[in-house]
Design goal:
Blueprint lengths: L2 H4 L1 H25 L4 H20 L4 H27 L6 H10 L3 H10 L1 H9 L3 H4 L8 H29 L19 H16 L11 H13 L2 H12 L1 H9 L10
Helix pairs in contact: 2-3, 2-6, 2-7, 3-4, 3-7, 4-9, 5-6, 9-10, 10-11
């Protein structure tokens, strides 16, 4: 039996649990008129389902506990950041304002489907973690070390990018300006780059594990979503509208995703 088949009951339970979580968060957005709660659901859902998967994992315990801890740290940090930096502001994220305008009078119904469909994404992004959780090799190997080191770099980079952007935005003198501080001078989206890098780290833990190819779903899917769907395209459009030529110059001078290593 393949790893995916044997994990099917867990994933189906996770899908149902995620659905209930998103219904609850949808009710919150109905009250607060802020659809940003969907980001909390996606992140927390992956962290919770991954933790449940660790409990049921059959791999070497130290490894799957390590990977489970890493994903839980990632989810906790990101949930706190989203709530503190986005949901505590007085303005709904521009992405969801656009979506609210598109839904019009049926916004509550439209957001219901938008929220609950995220349940499938929770399951999708737990699947790449399953090989690492079920890796049976009873000792640490080179790829475990490389995965841990890369995860630390990715987590540190994502935290630093978020911190630099938050500090920039808090300065009233920077209103309407483009952040080119620190990591933002080397990539237009360093936070997204380091987020993607984390999924490469999880894949390293899966090398040599049964059905290890499933781990590739993570970096491939997150890259596709960030570059083509929910992340970068919308951010770039909104930034051009709000900052005009200043952002157009930024686009010409700074790489979109992979950081420039040298000036």
């Amino acid at each position: 039996m393949s790893l995916l088949s044997s994990s099917a009951p867990l994933l189906l339970q996770g899908l149902f649990g995620s659905f209930l979580l998103f219904v609850f968060l949808w009710l919150i957005q109905c009250i607060r008129k802020d659809a940003g709660w969907v980001d909390v659901g996606w992140t927390a859902g992956v962290g919770i389902l991954a933790s449940v998967a660790v409990i049921h994992a059959e791999g070497w315990q130290p490894r799957h506990c390590l990977v489970g801890t890493l994903i839980l740290v990632w989810a906790t940090r990101l949930v706190i950041y989203i709530i503190k930096d986005r949901l505590c502001s007085n303005e709904e994220d521009a992405r969801y304002q656009t979506l609210r305008t598109y839904f019009g009078k049926r916004a509550h119904l439209g957001f219901f489907f938008f929220f609950t469909l995220q349940s499938f994404l929770v399951v999708l992004f737990v699947i790449p973690l399953l090989p690492a959780f079920n890796h049976a090799q009873p000792h640490w190997n080179l790829f475990d070390g490389l995965g841990t080191a890369l995860w630390l770099i990715a987590m540190g980079g994502e935290w630093l990018a978020d911190y630099q952007l938050t500090q920039f935005r808090r300065n009233p003198a920077h209103q309407g300006k483009v952040c080119r501080k620190g990591l933002w001078s080397r990539s237009r989206h360093p936070n997204y780059f380091f987020e993607w890098l984390q999924w490469i780290a999880y894949a390293l833990f899966s090398i040599g594990a049964p059905s290890g190819w499933l781990a590739l779903i993570g970096p491939i899917a997150i890259y596709f979503f960030l570059m083509k769907l929910t992340g970068i395209p919308h951010v770039e459009r909104e930034a051009l509208v709000k900052r005009g030529e200043a952002y157009a110059a930024y686009q010409r001078e700074v790489p979109i995703f992979f950081p420039r290593l040298f000036n």
